[in-house]
Every structure is written in structure tokens, then in C-alpha cells.
Amino acid sequence: MSDLYLVEVFPVEILNIIWAMLPLRTQATATKVDVVANYARLLDGIPDLDKYVRYLIRNSHDTAFLFTLVLEHRAVHWARLGRWRALVGPDTRSFTDYLSYLAWFAREQRKPKCSLALSEVRERYEATKILPTRKKTNGCKNNGRNSRKQWEV
What we know:
Elements: H1 3-9, H2 12-21, H3 24-28, H4 32-44, H5 49-58, H6 60-80, E1 84-88, E2 91-95, H7 98-108, H8 112-124, E3 135-137, E4 150-152
Antiparallel strand pairs: 1-2, 3-4
């Protein structure tokens, strides 16, 4: 007897009550449709998203679908970030933005699925790189006590 048989035996009202009592993480990972619908809320609960993204790239044979979801959810934000510096071994490398860093990391890990997804997203969001405009003001905001030039954003 399969577990799906029990789903057919119970009334829909009871199944809805049971479904409402399940934790969000369980609901979000039940089916692929649920994962797509709830993944943005799950990402907000991850404390270190950079580590999670690198984990997804390293394990892309299992997690390529999840990596594309993270990319779709955060790509605009990452495209608008400025320079990104990463500690690579004993050296610090500088990248034009976080997406460039992820593309480099995927190449270093030899993960073609992630590299392909990143290249598609980078092409799509290349035009969204909007850096904040700065205007130069004379003096500073603390009543002229400091004569250095200040930058306002």
C-alpha cells in the first residue's frame, strides 16, 4: 500500500488542516511547484547567503535548479552591487560585481550548469547596473568644523 493511497482516503478538509500545520520549510519543499512559489521566503531566512550560494555551486549536480531560483531572486540586487572583493587563498581578488565573482567561482569549480545560468543572467541584467549618483558638496554636515570635501549619496 502506498502513502498516496492515504491522501485519496482522507477528506480534503482534513488534508488542508494538516497542510496548514506543517512548517514552511516542509511545505516549500514538498513539490517543485511549492519550491518555486515559496523559495523567496525561504531565502530570507538564510543567515549567510554567500556561503549558501557557494554551496549550491559546488554541489550543482544536485542543486542546479535551486541555484537558478536564487539567481532569479537576487540577480538584480547583485547586478547593482559595486566592486566585489574576495579572499582567494592568500590573495584578495577584485571583481567588477558579485555576479562576476560567482561566474569566476563556477569556472574554478568546473560547474558548467552554473556558468551557463550565470552568463544568461548577466546578459539579461547587464543594463540594470545603476550606481548611485553622487554630488560633491563643499564643507561637511557638521556646521563647518571640518573643511574636507564630503560626498553625498
